[in-house]
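Quick review question:
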């Protein structure tokens, strides 16, 4: 229907200068996943825009062509009020007419990308390149998402977690985790000590809970999701018994902890210890942990020399 002016008279293709750049999975709103080129904070985003006229015999009149780099937060229950925390614009062509299919180079140098791409239950944070051909009736728009990972160094302070669960004269349990901050491929190591047991416990489990908070004030929403459950014990413990815990994080779909991102949403994680007695009463103890993404490890001079020796 483009001859009536009701359809797009051109197609836009965005090709990023990827080179040997890796790809990472992006989770979409419908739960499906796609691969996108992976970028980090401060890296340049550049590429080419190809505009192909559908009818080579007709020129494309426009009011300008622009390319944007956008960082956006979208709350699914308030789609009309998205937040653009990064917005860079470059003009590719002044108002005029395209006589033939053409291409444009673009580059956004050393772009700040301080947050990780994320799609959750109620929130999505995305980065994308958008090209717009401004027209009188309706614009022609094309978007291309990228993945962004935020890297952290190993925390200087990473104290162990020690907590107690107690019911006066009935139950006294101490549990300890080796750290309070874990990277995405880390291992949670801990131990549970039974100091007093006068109730009949039949089951104990440890769960990782992901809690997503969106909005603020009266419009604040909390959504909790159980990432995994780990059965610690099935049967009655006795006084003086201790049970080791070892939980590998690498197999789970986790994002780094995100706190109050532009006052729109947060993502936090908790270790949730649950005890169930023979009368099916449940006892809880919860502790927040921090999840972070580990950067590539720098090899020492000795390690580099060892690698070179192996190749000889």
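Suggested answer, residue by residue:
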């Amino acid at each position: 229907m483009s001859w009536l002016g009701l359809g797009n008279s051109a197609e836009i293709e965005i090709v990023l200068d990827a080179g040997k750049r890796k790809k990472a999975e992006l989770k979409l709103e419908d739960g499906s996943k796609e691969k996108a080129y992976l970028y980090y904070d401060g890296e340049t985003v550049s590429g080419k825009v190809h505009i192909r006229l559908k009818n080579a015999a007709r020129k494309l009149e426009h009011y300008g062509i622009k390319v944007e780099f956008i960082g956006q937060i979208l709350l699914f229950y308030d789609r009309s009020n998205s937040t653009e925390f990064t917005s860079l614009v470059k003009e590719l062509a002044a108002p005029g007419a395209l006589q033939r299919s053409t291409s444009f180079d673009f580059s956004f140098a050393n772009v700040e990308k301080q947050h990780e791409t994320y799609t959750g239950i109620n929130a999505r944070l995305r980065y994308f390149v958008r090209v717009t051909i401004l027209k009188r009736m309706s614009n022609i728009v094309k978007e291309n998402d990228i993945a962004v990972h935020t890297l952290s160094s190993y925390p200087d302070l990473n104290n162990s977690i020690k907590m107690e669960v107690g019911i006066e004269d009935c139950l006294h349990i101490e549990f300890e985790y080796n750290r309070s901050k874990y990277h995405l491929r880390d291992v949670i190591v801990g131990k549970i000590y039974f100091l007093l047991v006068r109730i009949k416990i039949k089951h104990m489990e440890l769960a990782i809970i992901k809690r997503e908070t969106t909005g603020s004030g009266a419009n604040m929403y909390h959504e909790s999701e159980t990432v995994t459950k780990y059965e610690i014990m099935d049967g009655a413990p006795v006084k003086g018994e201790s049970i080791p815990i070892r939980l590998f994080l690498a197999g789970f779909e986790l994002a780094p902890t995100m706190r109050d991102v532009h006052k729109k949403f947060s993502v936090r994680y908790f270790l949730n210890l649950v005890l169930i007695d023979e009368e099916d009463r449940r006892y809880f103890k919860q502790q927040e942990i921090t999840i972070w993404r580990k950067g590539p490890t720098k090899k020492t001079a000795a390690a580099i020399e060892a690698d070179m020796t192996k190749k000889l």
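Why it works: The radius of gyration is 27 Å. Confidence is low (pLDDT under 50) at residues 1-6, 299-304, 308-312.
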